[in-house]
Design a protein that fits this description.
globular, alpha+beta, binds inosine-5'-diphosphate, Alpha-Beta Plaits, 4 strands
Length: 151
Amino acid sequence: MGCGCNTKAEIPINKGVMRKERTFLMIKPEGVERGLVGEIIGRFERQGFKIVALKLSKISRELAEKQYEEHQGKDFFDDLVSYMSSAPTVSIVIEGENAISVAREMAGVTDPKFAKPRTIRGDYGIDVQRNIIHASDSEESAKREISIHFE
Ligand code: IDP
Ligand code: MG
């Protein structure tokens, strides 16, 4: 049983295959506005990840479109890119064992309604769009997203 004292995210790591990876995270506008930056970054630090890049910026619509290019044409695309470019966000690169899959676990599923407690979206997400955090979904996405946000 956890103590509920929120010292570590306690996300199980796949001990079978350990790979040192880098992944891209973005704290979305409502996470910054609500003062959750320290809380969210702290979770990744306590999980043992190293922060290798960190930037607060208001991204352009073009950059938001690039980040979410795989969703182009979907009904939520325009709203999503408007939202992501509407206010400051925090772009982060973390490094550590199985960073890509562990960060996705720590973020929780896309819709906060279904995200488990103690995941970031489960604890803080508002709705499917305003779900606090982005985390790359594969090695290929991580590489691509890191390169577009940090030249
Ligand atoms: P992910 O962020 O969990 O990888 P994706 O399906 O890749 O989820 O969607 C990218 C982002 O688009 C989500 O994080 C969320 O902000 C937004 N989104 C996804 N599905 C919907 C939807 O049905 N309505 C509104 N926004 C959505
Ligand atoms: Mg995705």
